Structures
1.
Amino acid sequence: MLVVDDHPGFRASARRLLELDGLQVVGEAVDGRSALRLARELAPQVVLLDIGLPDLSGFEVAERLGGAAARVVFVSSRGSGDLGRRVEASGALGFIPKDELSGEAVLALLAPAP
């Protein structure tokens, strides 16, 4: 998993949370451009992607990752109601509010629909 967020504290806590739940974090990116570069270099299975980045929006990054094998899970401190249908239209697996992030929440999005 690649964790993309411009706040170092969130990246560190997300890594810790996800690794405690058995997920492997292969890298961290601070903005959209570094996320795209690291996604090409590291080929993560999942990109945990903040929507509000300093250079590109998370939606722009997800669009540019469109041909990659990585699946996108958006995170934000804003509620999902603020994002409307943009998450669905982006092709991402889904959205998790930052204060609800856990390995279990990510795995639930990765699980195939019954």
Note: The chain has five helices and five strands.
2.
Amino acid sequence: MYKTTAHTGTLAGIYPEREEERQRWYDRLETFLSSIVVPWIKPREGSYREIVQQINRSSISAKDMRDSELLHKSRELGKLLRKDGFRDEIVAEVFALVREAAVRTVGMKHFDVQLIGGLVLLKGMVAEMETGEGKTLTATLPACAAALAGIPVHIVTVNDYLAERDAHWMGPVYKALGLTVGIIKQGMDPASRRAAYLCDVTYCTNKEVAFDYLKDRIVMWDRPSRMRLQLERLYGPDSRANKLLMRGLSFAIVDEVDSVLIDEARTPLIISAEPRNSPEHKVYRQALNVASNLSPKEDYWLFENERAVEMTEQGRAKVENFDWADARKWTNTQQREELVRQGLSALYLFTRDKHYLVCEGKVQIIDEYTGRVMADRSWERGLHQLVELKENCEPTSRKETRARISYQRFFRRYRRLAGMTGTAREVARELWSIYRLRVVSIPTNRPLNRSRMPDRAYPTMNKKWKAVVETISEMHQCGRPVLIGTRSVAASEHLSGLLSGIGLAHQVLNARQDREEAQIVAQAGQPAQITVATNMAGRGTDIHLAEGIAALGGLHVIATERHDARRIDRQLFGRCGRQGDPGTYEVLVSLEDELVTVYINKGLQGVVAVLLRSPIPIGVQRICKPLFYLAQRSAERLHARMRRNLLKLDTQMEDVLAFSGRQE
């Protein structure tokens, strides 16, 4: 664990970032105690009322300005911001200009609650705003204020589509105030990336910006000092300093902050390259063959909730006694055992159409939180190649790590960090203890008109799917649009088959249709429209209701499973009842759902089975509510522990590699 202090680390304006300092025992104690108290100490809406009134007063005079005067005024305010910092009276005038620029260029006016959200972001906190409350427009307020003050701004989104959409959508607002806008997306060449990072405001994805940072670390061989960059400049145009992609880590506004800083934090970011001496593919085949011939419980134990495999002594002996042919010459016992362990993971812990897709002969990883394909990602330590062999694909070459960093450590290096999301309160303690981010709940512009229907539980999966189809059919006959959320590609396609079987036309949105996402979502609010979606429809998408749908009750959302995290469920429910529109949602689950089978221990599952078979009538509904609550809490605690362990591993690796001067 680290604490952070503001530190440029380089020449002013070249590569600013925060320096990390190791925490001592009393720092860790303070972090633990404050993480309990701080989430409960939140600024109230009233504390922002005065500055919001100042913004509204300044907006009156901004209306009378010509476009050229608006631009001139923004430049004057920029000078004041550089001189005096973010004083309330200056910020109020800047926000008023941004609001007026938005009205003139994109026809949207910031509501007062969005002004509050902008102030929260500018102060380096997390604004928890209900889905549909206009986070994209809200981000322009702090982004413009910081950019006018000469601070480069990164607005971080969860995918290329949203980064490009938001940059083009909000671009005219920035340009009206004399600011430049850049976009970073997959496939761009280094020159284009440098140009985008040189803009005042840069829209990018969390993956792209973090990997660009790692590429800069490779260029400069770890984090450059001030003197080192000064010396590098002496080399002129051929200097390595001129090959850097970014201008440093000054200010990041992270959209869907819980997804990026919490969910994504379980996986380290790794840049890899082809090794010189890579194991031949036949060794992977041998490892997979050994794994397939081992017996569960006798030779190994599977821990599905942690996706881990533990070998028994008998299993280790079988692995060592296997005929590894020539592999024994250049692999040791530990390496062979690790390959077999990874082979067991590939066979039994990673499932097609749930954890990955096979497309055009290639294995593509699916992000379990968003349902989207993670392009150019691969599992490490031979797991990816073993999954490829399992699916009869041509195995790719194993990669060796050149640079790695966790999201926790990367985002803590920003000198100023803020975020926004619709679901942050469940992880407020972790956001504070890891990133020193406080969560502030922003009131809605209009009263919520979203109704929750009673949860329904069934003993088996088949009975649940039957009830789901019946519910969809009822809503369809009423003319209401329905959005059905599933946890995996396989589940969405299973439901699609059931609907096709009874002649119900529908659209499917999962990792196979990610290119048609915007078009499918745009139609999801049409009369009697049925949309079956994985978690892709849960973040960054906006479903607009067609005329007359509100009178019918609005969009109806059905969750066919509870997710590992309660936040993901709330994201799905937030697709309906936006901006005062009516909407309803309900949850249909079964005792055979993955959440129960993986995260509830076998003993408790056995007790539930006995209770359901007992002569005393005990309803499934009564059993399921506490059972699913326990399962979700268990999953959330497990994932939090995995994130802490990853951060701890990062720290340990830094200590091990510190002697070489290379930390990433």
Note: The mean pLDDT is 84.
